[in-house]
Amino acid sequence: MVAPLPLWLNCVRSVATDRKIRGMVAKPGLDGHDRGAKVIARALRDAGMEVIYTGLRQTPEMVVTAALQEDVDVIRLSILSGAHNAIVPRVMDLLRQNKMDDVLVLVGGIIPDQDMEALKKAGVAGIFQPGTSMDEIVSFIRENLKPRDMAAR
Fold this sequence. Notes:
It is a single chain. Helix content is 37%, strand content 16%. Strands 2-1-3-4-5 form a five-stranded parallel beta sheet, sandwiched between helices. Helix 3 (84-97) links the parallel strand 3 and strand 4. It is α/β, with parallel strands linked by helices. It has helices at 35-46, 60-70, 84-97, 113-121, 134-144; strands spanning 22-26, 50-53, 74-79, 104-109, 126-128. The termini are far apart. Helix 2 (60-70) packs across helix 3 (84-97).
């Protein structure tokens, strides 16, 4: 008997289009540890999403430029360095300046509980700390993906 597929594999298309969800995993700041980011990128690919991994030591400008060029639906920032309070607001400002308000932004890594509210007020849709299951992240993306406004781009 074959085991059933996980629920997150049942739907691999974007809510707003008939194309695959395009995601980006970025490692902004000076943090040089990317094992977790690579694991997330692989899990999203295994869930049927297209994933661009930007590599280490990206600036907020580099992250947003890549997201714009790649026309992503979701950006997953992986931050372990403690610089989230500086990096995330800058990324969110640049996304707004580029009229990319429809991009879902997630943050993962070492994010203290006391910083979560400010990040969400800045526009972050979800924050995932160590130990979060891959299924939970994939489900969150599918359930919270914003409709694409292609005319605005």
